[in-house]
Design goal:
Chain lengths: ~280, ~400
């Protein structure tokens, strides 16, 4: 089938699961925004980078903050500048165009070639934020009243939206998107992911570290479970510190890279001293 | 095609809308599912389910609808063995061949439907006795029969084949997403999300938004000398009072109530947040501590807090008849009340029109007389994520006053 010709198959620095790859391809083919949810550190943001790299397209990143408004993504009309210029006669202020600056979404629409647009952490913004973008993402166009001009996407951008489920996204918005929840990778997958990042670190160390990592994640009541990015940091620290893989089985060096919450660290130290270094209860 | 699946999804509680279903069908006809159950499972899920909270229900529905594909394990294993190593990989198609293939695809789509396919698949599994490659009827590799791996048959069933993480029906069967269901657990984070909807925006606080009209006005008045005017930005003005039952019958729900409480208190989302406790029913006092030592007269709530406060009462509303309707009916021996609890509840509703009752027990236990009476005063909702959402909706909309007076 023709969509297979130019399809996404992961990139050399990012391991995507097969279902995720297929879903990306469908989203690209149908031109629908793809909403990616998942635990922190499951590679939601990296996915967009990987898609851009694998398909050879430019990536435009729109980082959402709590104060971000939907209109910021379309365009900003710098009224204060214009007002200021009006005092001096050196500029032609009747040309509003020079005071209109396209936002990230606007840039993605106006781009002469297809781009990948990453709307990162959309849940950080106000609850109504996604609804304000409904029409723009649907039609891939918007109107600038100041110029009475329509900005229409020449090529529908590939839109990737990530969410940490800080807030729930509105149904009307989700209805128009394709949704995928990235599960936390299993041990096998994790080994592949680590190897992509550190091809030079010996397998034995990686295996032992991953085993220990999953054991730590199983510990009840941690406020913040360590995620992939913490594991990667930890393995790097282990390798740089020249730690012997045998040693990881009995103790956990550089615990600070894995657990970043003081309460968690305290709880964990208490637990592991009660249960013994192997994670088994002492007899 | 598949319309039954839509209804099964709805029945299982997945909120699929017609829009989503149509885009799913569109994708189906465009051939994105590549005639494989795995594609159907993962991509279908991406189209139809928009929250991990419903993944489990999707799994259940998928199992119910497509579960019949599970064949006798021994048979299936044999089939998988045959299919594991195809004798030949399919050659690349020339444009003409591709066109021919697409034409055929359209024909076949008309010709087959999935129910029939499943039936035939099982029949053939029974009939077939040996390995088969190529050809157009038997289950094998590289052929055009609807069944098998690496073959071309639109709308066919893939047996094994590519290296998916796991087969769809197996994944669906495992129901790995059970813990994400939102009708079961209500964790602090989800509660916070639900409570965040509880807001009324008003202009308060620091002046930081540029008021364009004001600026132009003022600038013009000053003969073009720019003078910027700022507005106060909009802030949440909701003030919330939480009243929680600490009675013995509430013991099983302690954890649930704690979560609601910690979510509400951690949020810094409300203009003001107050909480008080009571035992089974509210009389002339509420308490500042869970052990019910520090009394605060209920009247004081009325004098200190104006009508605009939103009140959420959490309790099972289940008590002895006398506790609600009688003078001195309070369950505590050393406590006497000269007005029945019911009167106090009515007073609360009267003073705080924006008030709701959250009940941690399941709706099916609400048949009790006192529960019934109280739910006529306060709109009552289950203490689940969905219930909480409805409660929040009720709090921000125009309040309904109780329709009965006793």
């Amino acid at each position: 089938m023709d969509y297979n010709v130019n399809s996404y198959k992961g990139s050399d620095d990012y391991i995507a699961s097969k279902p995720l790859m297929e879903i990306v391809n469908v989203a690209v083919a149908l031109g629908k925004p793809l909403v990616i949810k998942g635990e922190p550190g499951t590679g939601k943001t990296l996915l967009a980078h990987s898609i851009a790299k694998a398909l050879g397209k430019k990536l435009i990143i729109w980082n959402i903050k709590s104060t971000t408004k939907a209109k910021d993504g379309l365009y900003v009309y710098d009224t204060v500048q214009r007002l200021n210029d009006a005092r001096f006669k050196d500029k032609d202020i009747s040309d509003i165009r020079q005071y209109i600056k396209l936002g990230k979404l606007g840039q993605a629409f106006a781009s002469p070639e297809q781009v990948v647009l990453l709307i990162d952490e959309i849940d950080k913004a106000d609850i109504e934020f996604p609804n304000d973008l409904l029409n723009e993402l649907d039609e891939m166009s918007f109107h600038i009243p100041e110029l009475d001009e329509e900005i229409r996407a020449k090529h529908r951008p590939i839109v990737i939206i990530t969410s940490n489920s800080e807030k729930e996204l509105p149904d009307a918005f989700l209805r128009r998107c394709i949704f995928h929840y990235i599960e936390f990778p299993d041990e096998e997958m994790m080994e592949r992911i680590v190897k992509v990042h550190y091809p030079d670190i010996e397998t034995k160390l990686i295996r032992e570290a991953i085993k220990k990592f999953y054991w730590i994640r199983e510990v009840d009541g941690l406020r913040k479970k360590p995620s992939t990015s913490e594991l990667l940091d930890w393995i790097k620290a282990l390798a740089l510190g020249g730690i012997n893989p045998e040693k990881i089985t009995t103790e956990i060096p550089f615990l600070g890279t894995l657990l970043k919450n003081e309460l968690d660290t305290g709880r964990f130290v208490r637990l592991s001293s009660a249960q013994g270094g192997f994670g088994f209860r002492r007899r | 095609m598949f319309t039954d699946f839509y209804y099964i999804l709805r029945k299982k509680g997945v909120p699929v809308t017609v829009t989503e279903w149509l885009s799913f069908i569109e994708a189906l006809y465009k051939g994105f599912f590549q005639s494989s159950l795995n594609h159907l499972y993962y991509i279908g899920r991406a189209f139809l389910v928009k929250s991990e909270a419903y993944y489990d229900m999707f799994d259940e529905a998928f199992n119910e609808y497509f579960g019949g594909i599970k064949t006798d394990p021994s048979e299936l294993e044999k089939v998988l063995n045959w299919l594991e190593n195809p004798l030949h990989r399919l050659p690349k198609l020339t444009p003409e061949e591709a066109q021919e293939f697409h034409r055929r695809l359209e024909e076949l789509k008309k010709e087959y439907n999935i129910e029939e396919l499943m039936k035939k698949f099982r029949e053939r599994l029974m009939e077939q006795k040996e390995r088969h490659d190529g050809g157009s009827k038997w289950i094998g590799t590289g052929g055009t029969s609807p069944f098998g791996a690496y073959g071309y048959h639109p709308g066919g069933i893939r047996v094994g084949g590519e290296s998916w993480m796991q087969s769809a029906s197996k994944v669906a069967g495992e129901r790995r997403f059970r813990n994400y269901r939102n009708d079961i657990i209500l964790d602090v984070r989800q509660t916070k999300m639900a409570l965040k909807k509880l807001r009324e925006l008003k202009r308060e606080g620091l002046e930081e938004e540029l008021d364009l009209d004001g600026t132009i006005d003022k600038t013009a008045k000053q003969g073009g000398e720019i003078d910027l005017v700022f507005n106060k930005s909009r802030e949440n003005s909701v003030r919330l009072i939480l009243l929680m039952d600490t009675g013995g019958s509430m013991l099983p729900y302690t954890e649930l109530c704690e979560r609601l409480f910690s979510a509400a208190s951690q949020m810094e989302h409300f203009k003001e947040f107050r909480y008080y406790f009571f035992h089974n029913c509210i009389y002339q006092d509420v308490f500042e501590d869970m052990a019910n030592y520090k009394r605060v007269p209920t009247e004081k709530l009325f004098s200190n807090f104006h009508k605009g406060y939103k009140v959420v009462i959490v309790g099972d509303a289940r008590m002895a008849y006398s506790e609600l309707f009688d003078v001195n009916g309070c369950i505590d021996y050393f406590y006497s009340n000269d007005k029945p609890g019911l009167e106090w509840l009515l007073k609360i509703k009267e003073h705080f029109p924006h008030s709701v009752w959250l009940n941690p027990t399941h709706r099916s236990f609400w048949g009790h007389y006192t529960v019934d009476t109280i739910s006529k005063i306060f709109p009552m909702f289950e203490l689940t994520l969905d219930g909480l959402k409805d409660a929040v909706k009720a709090l921000v909309s125009k309040p309904k006053m109780p329709s009965f007076h006793n």
